Every structure is written in C-alpha cells, then in structure tokens.
Amino acid sequence: MRAATRRGTPCDCGIEFAGMSRVERLAGWMRQQLVSSGSHGFVVGLSGGVDSAVVLRLAQLAAPRATLGLILPCHSDPQDECDAAAIAERFGAPTRRIDLSHVYDEAISALRPAIAEPGPGAALAASSADALRARLALANVKPRLRMTALYFAANSLHYLVAGGGNRSELAIGYFTKYGDGGADLLPIGRLVKREVRALARDLGVPEAILDRPPSAGLWIGQRDEDDMGFTYDELERYLDEGPQAVAPALAMKIERLMRSSEHKRQLAAMPDAE
User: Fold this and answer.
1) What pTM does this model have?
2) How many domains, the chain?
3) b/e per residue 8-25 (b: at least 16 CB within 10 A)
4) What is the mean pLDDT of the chain?
5) Is 167 within the bounds of a domain?
6) Helix, strand or coil for residue 185?
7) Residues taking part in catalysis
8) 113-117, 129-133, 186-190, 192-196: lowest mean pLDDT where?
9) Is there a domain that residue 244 lies in?
10) 88: Cβ–Cβ under 8 A, 6 or more apart, which residues?
11) Which of 38, 129, 162, 228 is most buried as measured by Cβ atoms within 10 A of its Cβ?
12) pLDDT at 212 over 70
C-alpha cells in the first residue's frame, strides 16, 4: 500500500521527461509505473475535491481506456457525491458508486466492544480521552473502508490505486494511515496545494471544484484548515521558504506535526538486525 518511489529522467517505457509540460511529465511517469508493475490501469477514489479530480484526469491521460473512478459515500455530505459525479462527467470517466454507510455502521457496531472491555490501561484511557480523539477514531474507519474498496477493485482488474495525497498534507501527516494514505502511487505527492490548483486549471477541472474548501470528508462540515489550525498558504510558505517565513509559534507547530507523523511516511518500524 506504499506509493511507488522510483524516479528518474528517462523512464523505462522510452518517454523522455525533459522539455515536457508538468501534465505530460506526470502522465508519462504514471504510464511508467504501469509498465514497470505490469498493471493494466488505474483506480481513483473520487471525493469531489480538487486533488482527486487532478489525479483522475492524469490517470486518464496515462491510461485512456483503463481508468476507473470510485465514488464511495459513507455518511458523507451529499454535495461531495454531486461534485464527484460532476468531475467524472466533465472528463467522461467511467465510475462505480459503492455506498459504504451500512458497512461502516456494521463495522462500528462490531468494533465498539474492543474499547468497552476493561483491561490494562483502561482507566488511563478513560481519563485522558477527549471528544476529538473519540471522534477521529470513528471517522478514520471511513477512509480505511474506502481503501479496502479501492484495493478490491484494483486487485480484481489488475490496476494500481492512484492516491490523491499532496506534498502539503504528506509533510504534516494530514491523512489517515492505511486509509487515504494507502495507495500504490501518489502522482501529486511532490506538489503543494497551490501547485495542484494550478495544475487543475491546466487540466480543465471545473471552477466550482477549485473553489471548494479542502476537506477530508471525515464528517459533514469538516474542513482541513480548521483541523490543521493554520492555512495551506501558511504551511506552504514554511515548506517553500523555511521556518523564517512564518511566525515562530506556527513554525514550531508545523515541526511538531512533522515529527509526530513521521511513522505515517515510513514502513512499519522494525528493530535493528542482530
């Protein structure tokens, strides 16, 4: 479920990246991943946001007849599904809709006893838990169910899962581990949100999608910048120009998030070899 990390200037399929536009380079790189993995196409989870719209269109350019969008509502804002459908219609992309709401309800019902039973550390957990932590534990089941659906489709079709993580969110761990972070490749993983929006304009993503407040879709009304406690512009100033470009307190907050989320960007930790 890790993103492909092979990089290079000439690719295995004979495409030269030099002199190409960013769109051509990214689509060419995605084609290279298909060739090197022996896969046939791409599955993209369509959230209705700009990131998944860009990845869907790039996937189409890389594999015009072998790209599938999955729309995966899970007690979601109905507008998200409308926007996802509008993106697919704009680009003429085949989609499948799988409502995961009932699956989520069944999973939560089955999972709750795991934290209800008394055991070592139960008292500590009860005293230190807060509403946000409890809400996130429940909400993070949604992207993990979506990841399961994406991989079921990808494995069945011998496709790759193309994820929508961008550099801004990856840097501070603003994604669900083994949820929306579970993908075979991250085509926009080197681009900050500002660059993704610019690329979206080049690709013809509808303006209404560009204007949407970024949201991970964990619950209705959830917004990325509210969760992060700062704006994408502030984060990207830090990433592009360094800590001196933002207020010291904000730089410390960003660096703390980077440190605490390092495990999300690595394979599971293992002890040193004996």
Assistant:
1) 0.87
2) 1
3) eeebeeebebeeeeeeeb
4) 89
5) yes
6) strand
7) 51, 169
8) 129-133
9) yes
10) 46, 56, 69, 71, 94, 95
11) 162
12) yes
- Domain containing residue 163: CATH number: 3.40.50.620
Domain carrying residue 220: 22-102+144-265
Pair of tokens at residue 31: 């084609």
Amino acid at 191: L
Q: Which two tokens stand for residue 16?
A: 């030269």
Region for residue 92 given its phi and psi (left: phi exceeds 0; alpha: psi -120 to 50; beta: otherwise): left
Residue 245 tokens, joined: 């470009």
Task: Tell me the C-alpha distance between 274 and 268, whole Å.
Answer: 18
The answer to whether residue 168 is domain-embedded is yes
200 belongs to a structural domain: yes
Residues 6+ positions from 241 with CB-CB distance below 8 Å: none
Cβ partners under 8 Å of residue 28, min gap 6: 11, 13, 15, 17, 20, 62
pLDDT tens digit string along 127-179?
444 566 778 889 999 999 999 999 999 999 999 999 999 999 999 999 999 99
